[in-house]
Amino acid sequence: MGQAMVDPLVLRRWFYRLLLPLIATVFLFFHLLPLRVGAAQWPAPDLLVVFAFAWVMRRPEYVPVVLVAVLVVIHDMLFLRPPGVWAALSVIGLEFLRARAGAARDLPFWVEWAQVTGVLVAMTLGNRLILALFMVERAGLGLSLLQLMMSIAAYPLVVFLSVNLLGVRRIGPGEIDRIRTRS
Amino acid sequence: MDRNINDTYIRPVRRLLVGLVVLVLMGLFILWRIDSPRVEQFRAALVDRIVPSFEWALVPVTRVAGMVEGFQSYNRIYEQNQELRRELRQMQAWKEAALQLEQKNARLLSLNNVRLDPKLTHVTGVVLADSGSPFRQSVLLNVGERDGIKDGWATMDGIGLVGRISGVGRTTSRVILLTDSNSRIPVTIQPSGQRAMLSGDNTAAPPLEFVENPELIRPGDRVVTSGDGGLFPADLLVGQVVLGPDRRSRVALAADYGRLSYLRVLRSHATETVDDPGSLIAPIPPALPLGPVLPLADGLLLPVTNGAGDG
């Protein structure tokens, strides 16, 4: 009987797995709004990737690889980027952070921020390198760096929002036992 | 116990999955690099599927933003009023000049019996979404393949050239704006008549490149399309020359990029090409009959026939 009922933990997990596409859609929606045609001079931070990173550092099970890959590819397609490159780099960055999420649990926030910054910088450089290798026309270096800065600056904000508003927190010591006994 | 299972089974499977995902994504990129048109077609189809599903929400939000903007402008209504009065006075002078010019133009046109190009018809579309970013300047229109739109056609608002169609879905199409860094348009600068290339660089006023004689260009000169390359019709208004802060000649676009809503897509027809050089200079000589020919005194050639030889 216990197996047939929906476990609240599983329910919670699927709730967050659906929340990420929702965030991606809202971001896409605001991006598509025809409010500032041609006027946009400041690139928006890549909020989808920032959200995915912030969550993977807290609850790795909320951000499955395939989900993030599909969402970023859709963004690649709609934002006219070369399809696949940014998505592949995002997946690699995500897995890199996932492997370190457990160890980062006891470290202060600025260490986590530095890790994420490092990954984002590596992704941006890797993106430019791959595009250069395949001789694809690239946007200006300044613009890419500006977007990188925006993403890095957005990270603490996104973390604050995720923790306090959306409730994506690290597993506390008590919670681990609860999960263990359930599974 | 839990951790042991994790280490021996789940982790290698995960690693395999991640590797597979990355491989598929890079494969997609390489496919795009090799067979770009097919992937771009897929992209257009995806945009075609996703963007119209946002339309129900896009329209009210855009309208509310417009209302907010309108409300803000009420605050400046006094200044605006004064400004408008000033402008109106100036405009009246211009109107007088325009009326005189129009009459003159009508007289001259009727004298010449000129007909503007009858092949230039257009399809009007509404801007559905701005899918641009600082990296890519483009808008989506709600007309597509269904309405006969083709890649490469010119797009104008009421006044000036806006961009060209690039990417056509069934019901949507994408317009790459002149300000996009991929946009290159051959233009003519009037009145000096010089040819140049208008190449977008993601700023509001794209620079002119490859100008033969930069000294002949003055700020305020009109820039129109030249029709070189046969893609665009000639003489569509693009804007006027301004001097940028970096001392380069740039073009202030005539189209109102701040509020693109209704755009006209001009149907372009393939221009006729000249492929036989000889027939333009002189008619092709008729095929000569067989037999020896005799030169006559006045340079004509006559075939020798039986009994007709006058020796």
Biggest pleated sheet of chain A? none
- Could you give the order of strands across the largest sheet of chain B? 1-2-5-4-3-12
What is the percent of helical residues of chain B?
A: 25-40%
| Oligomeric state of the chains present here | heterodimer
- CATH-defined fold name of the domain at 122-266 in chain B: Thrombin, subunit H
Give the number of helices of chain B.
4
Largest sheet of chain B: 6 strands, antiparallel, barrel
Shape, principal axes of CA atoms of chain B: globular
Tell me the number of structural domains of chain A.
1
Total strands of chain B: 14
Which whole number gives the mean pLDDT of chain A? Answer: 84
Succession of helices and strands of chain A: HHHHHHH
Please, could you describe this protein's structure?
The complex is a heterodimer of chains A (about 180) and B (about 300). By secondary structure, chain A is mostly helical. Chain A has helices at about 10-30, 45-55, 65-80, 85-100, 110-135, 140-165, 175-180. Chain A has one domain. Chain A contains 7 helices and no strands. The longest helix of chain A has 25 residues, at about 10-30. The two termini of chain A are about 15 Å apart. The mean pLDDT of chain A is about 85. Chain B is α+β, with helices and mostly antiparallel strands. Among the domains of chain B are: about 1-35; about 80-115; about 120-265, Thrombin, subunit H, CATH 2.40.10.340. Chain B has 4 helices and 14 strands. Chain B has helices at about 1-35, 35-75, 75-110, 280; strands at about 120-130, 140, 155, 160-170, 175, 185-190, 195-200, 210, 220-225, 235-245, 250-255, 260-265, 295, 300-305. Chain B has a 6-stranded antiparallel barrel with strand order 1-2-5-4-3-12. Chain B has a 6-stranded antiparallel sheet with strand order 8-7-6-9-10-11, with no helix packed on it. Chain B has a two-stranded antiparallel ribbon with strand order 13-14. In chain B, helix 1 packs across helix 2. Chain B is globular, with a radius of gyration of 30 Å. Classes of the chains: A mainly alpha (about 180), B alpha+beta (about 300). At the A-B interface, helix 1, helix 3 and helix 4 of A face helix 1, helix 2 and strand 1 of B.
